[in-house]
Amino acid sequence: xxxxxxxxxxxxDRDGARAMLCDDLVFRSPTARxxxxxxxxxxxxxxxxxxxxxxxxxxxYEAPHAxxxxxxxxxxxxx
Length: 79
Prior knowledge:
The protein is α+β, with helices and mostly antiparallel strands. 30% of the residues lie in helices and 33% in strands. The protein has 3 helices and 4 strands. The chain has a two-stranded antiparallel ribbon with strand order 1-2. Strands 3-4 form a two-stranded antiparallel sheet.
């Protein structure tokens, strides 16, 4: 499911990505703190345009939780 989720990000399928998230998602990163899935999507979705190939570094699944560490190239462009 995690791999399908990130495929949605790379392909720009916002509805598909959101459908895979639980409503009470908690997300923390150096630049964002979100306490529900809708806030996460509103805050972070625009970054999908910059995602490149994803390399999964570490995955841990312990129902109902998942932890995934990954690397991705970020594409930046100037208009």
